[in-house]
């Protein structure tokens, strides 16, 4: 993988790139929220409902590297369903899901009690948490956490989700979508790092977007640009 900015022509390992510029291990209490998404040249974030058709070897390498630098992967319900999430295994980061309804098909492997790997966290509303308990969710599907309500008293407060994860010692948080969760995180100004893979692909899709409309525009700072086989890997941070 070649770095184009800020060090043109320098080869860089994805694992090095994933950890570069983050708080060191000497400040373990520092919260760091990173985003990782892939997008086509015409702005699509999925093909046939999934992002896998956009990502190539460079995107997959960065995907693995960013997960390796994370304590927990945070993801929205729609992405869990569409991307068919699995548990990350004993060596991988924890997985935390945000879902107001907490309704998932039994085919979702992430919540299959017979699958190996760490128990995922499921952040939902108080009412939905009570409903799951009443439905008798089998032991081993997920640890259900009733989160504080979001703005206006509806949904789930992403701020409360982040605070809860940090309170459990998960300081490096990687969000992998989807757009609704990214929008809530951006609106609450909780994102420290945006990793966007720009695939050299035209998807011909105009109704999918990285995030939804924001009440206030957020300015970002370009930190790094890497390239491999025509794929650009962009990293943005907070603008000082």
Indicate the percent of residues in helices: 10-25%
- Cα separation of the termini: 28 Å
CATH superfamily of the largest domain: Dihydrofolate Reductase, subunit A
Output mean pLDDT: 90
Radius of gyration, rounded? 18 Å
CATH architecture of the largest domain: 3-Layer(aba) Sandwich
Q: What's the total helix number? A: 6
- Uncertain runs are none
Find the count of extended strands (DSSP E, 2+ residues).
11
Question: What is the SS-derived class?
Answer: alpha/beta
CATH T-level topology of the largest domain: Dihydrofolate Reductase, subunit A
Estimate the strand proportion. 15-25%
Largest sheet: 11 strands, mixed
Going across the major beta sheet, what is the strand order? 2-1-10-11-9-3-8-4-5-6-7
Element pattern in H and E: EEHEHEHEEHEHEHEEE
Integer count of domains: 2
What is the CATH C level class of the largest domain, in words?
Answer: Alpha Beta
CA-based shape: globular
Short description:
This protein is an alpha/beta fold and 240 residues long.
Characteristic terms for this protein:
6 helices, alpha/beta, Dihydrofolate Reductase, subunit A, globular, 2 domains
Plain-language structure description:
Helices cover 22% and strands 25% of the residues. The protein is an alpha/beta fold. The chain folds into two domains: 35-47 and 179-240, Dihydrofolate Reductase, subunit A (3-Layer(aba) Sandwich); 71-171, 3-Layer(aba) Sandwich (Dihydrofolate Reductase, subunit A). Strands 2-1-10-11-9-3-8-4-5-6-7 form an eleven-stranded mixed beta sheet, sandwiched between helices. Strand 6 (121-124), helix 4 and strand 7 form a beta-alpha-beta unit. The chain is globular, with a radius of gyration of 18 Å. The model has no long low-confidence stretch (mean pLDDT 90).
């Amino acid at each position: 993988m070649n770095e184009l900015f800020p060090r043109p022509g320098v080869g860089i390992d994805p694992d090095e790139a994933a950890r570069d510029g983050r708080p060191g291990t000497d400040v373990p209490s520092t919260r760091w929220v990173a985003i990782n998404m892939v997008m086509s040249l015409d702005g699509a974030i999925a093909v046939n409902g999934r992002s896998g058709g956009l990502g190539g070897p460079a995107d997959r390498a960065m995907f693995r590297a960013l997960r390796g630098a994370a304590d927990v992967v945070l993801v929205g319900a729609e992405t869990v369903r569409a991307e068919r999430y699995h548990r990350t295994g004993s060596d991988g980061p924890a997985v935390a899901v945000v879902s107001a309804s907490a309704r998932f098909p039994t085919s979702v492997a992430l919540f299959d009690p017979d699958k190996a790997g760490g128990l995922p966290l499921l952040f939902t509303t108080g009412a939905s948490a009570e409903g799951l308990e009443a439905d008798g969710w089998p032991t081993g599907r997920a640890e259900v956490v009733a989160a504080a309500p979001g703005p206006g008293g509806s949904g789930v407060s992403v701020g409360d989700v982040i605070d809860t994860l940090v309170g459990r010692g998960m300081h490096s948080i990687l969000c992998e979508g989807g757009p609704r969760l990214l929008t809530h995180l951006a609106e609450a100004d909780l994102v420290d790092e945006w990793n966007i893979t720009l695939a050299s692909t035209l998807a011909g899709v105009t109704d999918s977007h990285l995030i939804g409309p924001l009440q206030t525009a957020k300015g970002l700072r370009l930190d790094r640009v890497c390239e491999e086989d025509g794929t650009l890997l962009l990293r943005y941070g907070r603008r000082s």
